[in-house]
Amino acid sequence: MCDEIQIKEKSNKRKRADYAKKLRCKTFICVLEKPSNPSNVGAVIKNIDVLGISKLYIVGGKNFKSKKNIKIIHNTSCGSSNYVYVHYFNNTNECINYLNIKKFISFVTSPHVKNKINYNLMNTDFTKYKKIAIWFGNESRGISEESLEKSFGCLNITMAGMGESLNLSNSTAIVLNHVANQRRNYKLNKIKIKCDNKMIENQILTEKLL
User: Fold this and answer.
1) Calpha distance 201→206 (Å, rounded)
2) pLDDT tens track for 162-198
3) pLDDT single digits (tens) 107-134
């Protein structure tokens, strides 16, 4: 009886994994620049897993590979750290160069910045870019001047209240959810249009044969 339950659980998990794989945004990466709190990293990993983001890149910051931090990250991510690919870079320049080689467009999240192209989250079409990396800065200092200078543009969230900022977990959830859904829906619509066109072609061919 126990064996049957285990087989059923594995089967359900496999179905869920296959479903998640189809919806995952493979050309969309989240970058955390010099995060300081492993609990925040765990919360972001949870967001990334749930929202179907491809990967997480962590630039500098603490030693998140220590046994203590790995445990904290695993617990705060509610186990999502088992399913999210995480890659570490020693510094900002190393990560930027790697993303450039892979032809990713980098957006940094920050309030309005002078002398920089500023994009409002809700008014930007992210489907125009084949590969996207969105950067989030340190919990207290924000994004670095280096990443800001070398980014494609500055992405900001409209603040409609008295507060002027969001914590790392909330900001990643809002931004990643909006961008991922926009890109995912665009992809699904393209597939639907392709299928519809194929059905029309088959129908025309059938009518000609008749």
Assistant:
1) 9
2) 777 788 999 999 999 999 999 988 877 766 655 655 5
3) 999 876 666 788 999 999 999 999 999 9
Domain residues for the domain of 26 are 2-209
Report the domain count for the chain: 1
pTM: predicted TM-score of the whole model, two decimal places: 0.81
DSSP string, the chain: -HHHHHHHHHHHHHHHHHHHHHH-EEEEEEEEES---HHHHHHHHHHHHHHTEEEEEEESSS-TTSHHHHHHHHHHTTTGGGTSEEEEESSHHHHHHHHHHTTPEEEEE-S--TTS-EEEGGG--GGG-SSEEEEE-BTTTBS-HHHHHHSSEEEE----SS-----HHHHHHHHHHHHHHHHHHHHHHHHHHHHHHHHHHHHHHHHHH-
CATH number of the domain bearing residue 74: 3.40.1280.10
